[in-house]
Design goal:
By secondary structure, this protein is of the alpha/beta class. The strands form four sheets. A six-stranded mixed β-sheet has the order 3-4-14-9-10-13, sandwiched between helices. A five-stranded parallel β-sheet has the order 8-5-6-7-15, with helices on both faces. The chain has a two-stranded antiparallel sheet with strand order 1-2. A hairpin with a 2-residue loop joins strand 3 and strand 4. Helix 3 packs across helix 4 and helix 3 crosses helix 11. The structure holds pyridoxal-5'-phosphate. Pyridoxal-5'-phosphate binds next to helix 12.
């Protein structure tokens, strides 16, 4: 399987090469030459999470050995607190696919626990690698966990200083590991992400890195090593519905996904194209509803006010992975190139193809808080502020929907305890995590409880324009 750039002017790569590289030299994103079809879906439905992951990786990462892939899967998914990795739970007649059982309590762990292993197998001995990450909150810590103490690798994480939750910030600032660096940026996530992409394609930076024999690599969801692992849990959710006899074999279901950079929901689109019976993929957004506007009008326009919301990991106006969806729909790198050229000039583009099977709605802050409260009152189950965007927005759809919908649950409520407590009627609760634990009748997860006791290690802050300089200083080049 070869991987091609969505913009058509970069060389085709193997999976391993694309996973090391991240973004293509022409600024495009790598996509597989074709989306593989699953030949025997019923057999897939019998597998446990690790076996299923292995089968799906075999279809995409064809240059890896089977033994290598098995090893990646074993190492990555043994770090989860449940063998199921992605358990499906039913509460009050709703299905939630819990993707937050990894080490950092958000769905990013599913991919970022395995990406370092994929890269390790693809790297040549002696390569020095630098992983540059822009995070809206959750990717940063998950990447730090995944790459800490991997030999020959340094990680620099840039996060928007005022755009992450207190737990997210603390998780990153207290992170230990001699090869990890964390820098706050005075700006929002879009500024941070745009500048990181810029560093990847900047000629001077390229020269400096190559002189110093440093290979630059990305852990953002533009890396195919990120979205391939995310395909697995859509299949696994369906398998769990079948096993619990909640659906008939072959019955099409919907998935509702709280969306930011479009990586998670894109994996659902791939699952559908591979043959999983999915009717609708529902892209839900917070007040930064650039994607909702796009799916309902065909016009993508980032020229608008940016809101810092209680679902910060979705506070995004430039949704990178959408480019892959558009490419898969229109099939023309030339068309994507010209859309993206116009986008970088004007911040706007129009897409005139059918977006069938993709639905969208958004939720306001108040609707999001209410969704948390209502579900808790009815069932005692607590969801985080991102998952709640999905629940609230779904309830506003008036299209024809499938009988069964799965809410993709992207983070543990403990990660956003302050706002979750507010939703439940305890605004400004001091020690929100403890309060939440009482309300949920569980104890605060150890990795969150310890955060307040750990020393702050990373205090560095810079402006967007100083990010290149920060990279050079940290790498001493
Ligand atoms: C990253 C993230 C999202 C958005 O996912 P995308 O793949 O960027 O669309 C939603 N919720 C949480 C908790 C996240 O960390």
């Amino acid at each position: 399987m070869k991987y091609y750039s969505t913009r058509g002017r970069a060389e085709a790569l193997t999976a391993g090469e694309a996973i090391l590289k991240g973004i293509a030299t022409d600024g495009g994103l790598y996509v597989p030459e074709k989306i593989p079809k699953v030949e025997n879906l019923p057999a897939f439905m019998e597998l446990d999470y690790k076996e299923l992951a292995f089968e799906i990786f075999k279809l995409y990462l064809t240059d890896y050995t089977h033994a290598g892939l098995r090893d990646c899967v074993d190492q990555a998914y043994s770090t989860f607190d449940t063998q199921e990795v992605a358990p499906l739970v039913k509460r009050g007649g709703k299905y939630f696919l819990e993707l937050f059982h990894g080490r950092t309590f958000a769905f990013k762990d599913v991919a970022l626990s395995i990406l370092p292993h994929f890269q390790r197998l693809a790297a040549k001995d002696g390569d020095k690698r630098l992983i540059l990450v822009a995070t809206s909150g959750d990717t940063g810590k998950a990447a730090l966990e995944g790459f800490t103490d991997v030999p020959g690798v340094n990680v620099i994480v840039f996060y928007p200083q005022e755009g992450v939750s207190p737990v997210q910030k603390r998780q990153m600032q207290t992170h230990r590991g001699g090869n990890t660096f964390v820098v706050g940026v005075q700006g929002n996530f879009d500024d941070t992400q745009t500048e990181v992409k810029q560093i990847f394609t900047d000629d001077e930076m390229k020269r400096i890195f190559s002189e110093n024999k440093i290979r630059l690599s990305s852990a953002n969801s533009i890396n195919i090593g990120r979205f391939v692992p995310q395909i697995v849990y859509y299949f696994y959710a369906y398998a769990q519905l079948l096993r619990a006899k909640e659906i008939e074999p072959g019955e099409a279901v919907d998935f509702t996904v709280p969306t930011g950079n479009f990586g998670n929901i894109l994996a659902g689109y791939y699952a559908k194209k591979m043959g999983l019976p999915i009717a609708n993929l529902i892209c839900t957004t917070n007040d930064n509803k650039v994607l909702y506007d796009f799916f309902t009008t065909g016009v993508y326009d980032k020229n608008r006010e940016f809101f810092a919301t209680i679902s910060p990991s979705m506070d995004i106006l430039v949704s990178s992975n959408l480019e892959r969806l558009l490419y898969n729909i229109c099939g023309s790198a030339q068309e994507i190139s010209s859309l993206m050229a116009s986008f970088s000039k004007t911040g706007r583009f129009e897409f005139n193809h059918s977006l069938e099977g993709m639905l969208s709605h958004f939720a306001t802050e108040e609707e999001t808080l209410n969704a948390i409260k209502t579900l808790y009152d009815e069932t005692g189950y607590v969801i985080d502020t991102h998952t709640a965007v999905g629940v609230a927005a779904y309830s506003k759809l008036d299209e024809n929907l499938s009988r069964v919908n799965v809410f993709v649950s992207t983070a543990s409520p403990f990660k956003f305890a302050g706002d979750v407590c507010k939703a439940l009627g305890y605004p400004g609760a001091s020690k929100a995590e403890e309060r939440l634990a009482e309300l949920m009748d569980v104890s605060v997860p150890e990795r969150i409880a310890e955060l307040s006791k750990l020393p702050i290690i990373h205090e560095r802050v810079c402006t967007r324009n100083q990010m290149k300089e920060a990279v050079r200083e940290i790498m001493k080049v």
